[in-house]
Amino acid sequence: MNMIYSKRLAPEHPLPTAYKDSWNALQGVQARSEPWINDYADFNRFFLVGDSAGANISHHLAFRTKQSDHTVKIKGIAMMHPYFWGT
């Protein structure tokens, strides 16, 4: 199962808006509000994927789920051109 979402972008929506949007999307998956999700998704094998700033957000989400009582288990992260500690 793939989940693709859109986050609000700067400068119209300054940080941490994109991080909050991403966390809310993951919370939506955890809520399992759509019955078909329970039939097709394996919540013990969840991967996060991001490119550039999205890679940074994926990294952030992985750590945040570890520090919470999140039921979605992050199995791995694929980060393309992650942007850390910019100049």
UniProtKB/TrEMBL annotation:
MF terms (GO), sorted A to Z: hydrolase activity
Q: Where is the Alpha/beta hydrolase fold-3 domain?
A: 8-82
**Listed PANTHER family:** ARYLACETAMIDE DEACETYLASE, CARBOXYLESTERASE 2-RELATED
Entry similarity comment: Belongs to the 'GDXG' lipolytic enzyme family.
- Specify the protein name: Alpha/beta hydrolase fold-3 domain-containing protein
Q: Which organism encodes this protein?
A: Brassica cretica
